[in-house]
Amino acid sequence: MWEYTEKVKEHFLNPHNVGEIENPDGVAEVGSLACGDALKLTFKLDENKRIKDAKFKTFGCASAIASSSALTEIIKGMTVDEALKVSNQDIAQYLGGLPDEKMHCSVMGKQALEKAVENYRGAPALEAGAKIICECFGVTDKEIERAIRENNLSTVEDVTNYTKAGGGCGGCHDAIQQIIERVKAEPKTDTKPKLTNIQKIRLIEETIEREIRPSLKQDGGDIEIIDIIGNRVIVAMRGACSTCKASEITLKDFVQHRLQELVSPDITVEEAAK
Amino acid sequence: MKTIYLDNNATTQVAQEVLDVMMPYFRDLYGNPSSMHTFGGQVGQRIRAAREQVATLLGALPEEIIFTSCGTESDNSAIRSALTTRPDKKHVVISRVEHPAVRTLCSHLNTQGYKITELPVDKNGILDLENLEKSLTSDTAIVSLMWGNNETGVIFPVEEAARMANEKGILFHTDAVQATGKIPINMKNNVIDMLSISGHKLHAPKGIGVLYIRRGTKFSPFLIGGHQEKGRRGGTENTPSIIGLGMACELAAKNMEKENTYVKQLRDKLEKELLKKIPHSRVNGDIENRLPNTTNISFEYVEGEAILLLMNELGICASSGSACTSGSLQPSHVLRAMGVPFTMAHGSIRFSLSVNNTEEEVDFVIEKMPAIIERLRGMSPFWNQSGQACTSQ
Q: How much is the ipTM here?
């Protein structure tokens, strides 16, 4: 038995806005019978271009029906731009949360909304270049790529667990496999995890200690970190370096170069005012 | 609100008579049946009586009965024993509609180097014995086929299948968890080597099962430990449940006729009326070769979980083969194996009755179901007002 919130039960047992608007401004159908859930969304705008009415017809489980009901309630009164900002998390939150296995129901709502706006505008509403790969759960290639990179996924099964993509009819397994191969073939630097500030500071310190200072010391010089502000590393040159005419070059060509290579390509190194 | 329980293939209510015989063994007669003293020994005698009660229901010998913890343990023990006692053989034959206790074990065995053949079924869930014949090789250790299907109630010709395996010297196991107590089983009239039973499907408590092993069949224990069950299943006996199961088997023998007349008539009425009152509905599985208590009906263009939850609001309990109810993303493997169209599989509801159900209950369900389906169809994008289905998908 699913642990549905009272709000989910309420929207399932007494769903709001069931039906279809005649002559709608935007209409979309997502999902399919094969996948076990499907949603037809229609909306109408008022003279101020705000969503006056939204209705749905849904084939699916209780959470699919409740998510559809929640979606139509949420978007009423919004402009289409505002509506596009509604995320599947917003839909789930409106319902007081959904079981993990049922999150795809809220994704279906989000997908229908995007498609309906697309239909209204006659132009893609999705982020540029994003293409739906998994029709069943409305997962785009961008989302799949992101999940693969951020979680270092290597199988279709992994991708299904993280994004639901490929968990329905299975028709997109080949496409997902191709995306995995494409992402895996990318240069490694792209897969470097994003560092937290603390991690970055530590890595800068370590790099200077291990890779930079020993070289400078060979020439009687030294370096000290004064401050790190975002990607700006402020240092003071010590010993022989402090009087060396070429210290500017050392700083950019050696210190900055090594830090960019080993920590982040966005690092810049500056010398502290003397 | 009154509960109308039509989910007896999931589990059954413990019979009052069963509970009554169990009660003394929790607090008064709590001795260990293996003990030397009379206090424990008397429990051992009572277990012997229970073993005889189980054997009688199956037409078996008492020494052919091993008590286990559940149907899953029985299934696992049987198949693993066959592979252990025939270490040179690496092939197992099952069907595509087996219970997860068999199917998932076999997928696991597959990763351990065993070859698994999953026999197909036709659109009515029926097994083609010719396919079985063709699948048997000199490498086959065991064939495991269920007697009655838990989702559709379809009955497999296991006695005939066992003969085919037997002729080739291959072991035969059947998961009779759903069939036991619903259709006559007489192990004297067949050559089935091993058979699994689960107590809670026949009004005994959960946590007790049986593995029947034909006398003379080599057996390698799954649970290794003490000398209990003649060393074939270690672990202190679950005395109250064993004694309860004995009584449940006695009751099952008594109720066998009622299952096949009274329960069957209730099931048939429910099925006939629902099909009549609700358009675009159909029965999944063969109508003839079927357990008397089960019907699996698909209501097209609506989803099973939603149906179940609306039934739940009225106190009606049943199950669904829909994807959403299981937490997986696909509908039931049984319905898929039968090639039930997705439009039907997602809206499948299993009603499973027992001798405890009444005609009033069935009438209530018949009265309430059409409105439930109509309400959900009213929300479905695949259903239009004229009652004509949109079949573009």
A: 0.85
